[in-house]
Write a sequence for this structure.
């Protein structure tokens, strides 16, 4: 069996890939996908801990994470569409209506 | 993992690929043309080989040697990959389909099924949902309005009907209490009141109707072939795949999907490989009483069950063809209305009714 | 065998994750993300989370990413709108900060005492066991999740509807 730490390193790597995406990309859709990557990284560490502790509670958390991701996708994409209609762009640097 | 086990798995994969390509691809291609010809009072293909039996071979040779035209400003990689995604998803769904019961050969339990997953039915749904990618990507990659419209239509349709399809089988899962396909089949073996097999269609008739309708929509067959409505969209998402082998993959995938859908219908609603009222052990002991050795008794049983499964599947494949040449196409709004306002509430009602009945009994 | 599979899929997952955040065209990003989710599902299977792995493919790959592809295609961004015009200094800072974060996380993992996996029975991670847990200990969160989905559904319809 692969040691727990390797699963956690993989999970951390995915999470970091997500954060790099969020910090460096300006396209709202790619930022959105990066967030999905981060969620998956977290889900992986839940599952790894769950397997190594022999308890199923981690699976329930992942189940909830996936539910939230589905809800987030629906609302997030609807927001992206609405913003594109309003501003004609999805560059998140140009979306600054709330800035005083 | 031992080498014999590995060899058996490889042999099974080869067998399923053969079934996919010959039974689903070759035979259905020919059968569809012959049956449609019969229904329209034509002769159908009758030039190549005896009674036109070699016509698909001629078609394949033609497809191989056709020039591979790529549209201008198409997105090359995706254009190349999309047909493969479609063929891949169609073939990999076959991996969990059980065609026979588990029988003993040389002390080793064997069934004609590649993987007996504990989430078998969900696997089929997961793989089926990937088919959407093939449609939407091939529609987009060709850089053509017709094919793009076809791709969007097809994926919207597949997503919509997947919902009712998934909900319709919940009743079945509640009754047979398993996601494993073999368990579902075994759960259908008892007889109700001594004569009626406890098949899915008997205990869940409404689910069967919903599932069948959704299966037509999922496989993109008439009356739901909106994405390739020839009169409006030329040929839908595969318009730009001229006539090269890529088109062949779409063509093949459609028939393999039909085969998978029919197999799933047979497994969920018609008892899979079962002959009503006769268990596998009884068949084996029947062959042994005829004087066959244990090995041959198992072999005959497995062949018999294979025959039974294929006969049931063949009936539904015929139904697909029959419907295609009988019923006209829906309009797109009618399709969406049927999916969301007709089938979906019915499926939820079915779950509710099943739950109530199960609580009362 | 299992170890080899893990490293293979882990490599694919990380490589595709990096491709997701570096591709210019969002469609390519989305497709690499699909592959990433696939290899993650394979890793989940290695952790004997069969049900979650299938759900991952059904929900993430089969529903969420299809929706994302749909939106990308509907917006049909032109070359100009795709532009990721951003001072490279900031990009550099982002990468550096994330790198530091990665080092911190890895350090945390290193502190962790090596632990042998508990042996689990055949049923670990099946729909049956998970369902039992969901409908007993976690019933309230489960019901609230359904409310969340309903809210999201209504919200998405309201947001994406054309104003009249």
């Amino acid at each position: 069996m692969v040691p727990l730490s390797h699963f956690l390193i993989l999970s951390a790597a995915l999470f970091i890939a997500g954060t790099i995406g969020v910090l460096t990309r300006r396209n709202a859709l790619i930022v959105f996908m990066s967030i999905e990557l981060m969620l998956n990284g977290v889900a992986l560490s839940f599952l790894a801990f769950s397997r190594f502790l022999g308890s199923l509670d981690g699976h329930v958390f992942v189940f909830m994470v996936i539910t939230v991701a589905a809800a987030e996708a629906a609302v997030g994409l609807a927001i992206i569409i609405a913003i594109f209609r309003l501003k004609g762009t999805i560059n998140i640097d140009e979306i600054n209506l709330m800035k005083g | 993992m031992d080498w014999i086990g590995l060899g058996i798995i490889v042999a099974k994969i080869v067998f399923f690929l053969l079934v996919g390509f010959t039974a689903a691809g070759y035979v259905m291609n020919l059968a569809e043309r012959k049956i449609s010809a019969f229904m329209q009072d034509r002769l159908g293909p009758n030039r190549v080989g005896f009674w036109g039996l070699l016509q698909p071979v001629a078609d394949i040779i033609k497809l191989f040697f056709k020039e591979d035209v790529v549209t201008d400003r198409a997105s090359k990689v995706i254009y190349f990959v999309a047909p493969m995604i479609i063929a891949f998803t169609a073939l990999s769904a076959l991996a969990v389909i059980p065609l026979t019961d588990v029988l003993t050969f040389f002390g080793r339990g064997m069934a004609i099924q590649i993987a007996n997953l504990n989430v078998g039915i969900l696997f089929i749904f997961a793989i089926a949902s990937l088919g959407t990618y093939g449609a939407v990507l091939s529609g987009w990659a060709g850089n053509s309005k017709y094919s793009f419209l076809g791709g969007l239509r097809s994926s919207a349709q597949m997503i919509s009907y997947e919902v009712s399809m998934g909900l319709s089988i919940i009743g079945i899962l509640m009754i047979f209490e398993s996601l494993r396909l073999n368990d579902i089949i075994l759960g259908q073996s008892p007889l109700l009141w001594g004569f009626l097999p406890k098949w899915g269609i008997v205990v869940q008739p409404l689910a069967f109707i919903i599932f069948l309708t959704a299966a037509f929509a999922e496989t993109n067959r008439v009356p739901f072939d909106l994405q390739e409505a020839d009169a409006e969209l030329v040929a839908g998402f595969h318009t730009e795949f001229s006539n090269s082998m890529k088109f062949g993959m779409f063509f093949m995938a459609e028939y393999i999907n039909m085969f998978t859908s029919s197999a799933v219908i047979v497994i969920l609603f018609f008892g899979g490989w079962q002959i009503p009222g006769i268990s596998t052990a009884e068949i084996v002991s029947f062959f042994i009483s005829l004087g066959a050795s244990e090995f041959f008794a198992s072999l005959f049983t497995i062949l018999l069950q294979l025959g039974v499964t294929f006969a049931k599947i063949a009936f539904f494949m015929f139904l697909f063809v029959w419907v295609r040449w009988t019923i006209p196409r829906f309009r797109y709004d009618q399709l969406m209305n049927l999916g969301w306002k007709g089938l979906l509430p019915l499926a939820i009602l079915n779950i509710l009714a099943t739950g109530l009945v199960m609580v009362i009994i | 065998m299992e170890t080899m599979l893990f490293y293979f899929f882990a490599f694919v997952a990380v490589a595709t994750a990096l491709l997701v955040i570096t591709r210019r065209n969002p469609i390519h990003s989305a497709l690499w993300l699909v592959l990433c989710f696939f290899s993650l599902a394979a890793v989940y299977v290695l952790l004997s989370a069969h049900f979650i792995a299938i759900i991952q493919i059904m929900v993430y790959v089969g529903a969420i990413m299809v929706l994302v592809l749909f939106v990308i295609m509907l917006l049909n961004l032109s070359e100009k709108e795709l532009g990721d015009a951003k001072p490279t200094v900031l990009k550099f800072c982002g990468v550096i900060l994330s790198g530091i974060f990665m080092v911190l996380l890895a350090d945390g993992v290193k502190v962790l005492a090596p632990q042998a996996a508990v042996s689990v029975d055949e049923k670990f991670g099946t729909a049956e066991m998970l369902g039992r847990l969901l409908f007993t200990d976690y019933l309230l969160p489960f019901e609230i999740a359904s409310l969340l989905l309903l809210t999201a559904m209504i919200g998405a319809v309201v947001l994406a509807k054309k104003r009249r």
Notes: The mean pLDDT of chain B is 83. Strands of chain B lie at 103-105, 108-110, 191-192, 196-197. Chains B and A do not touch (no CB pair under 8 Å). Residues 3-39 of chain B form the longest helix (37 residues).
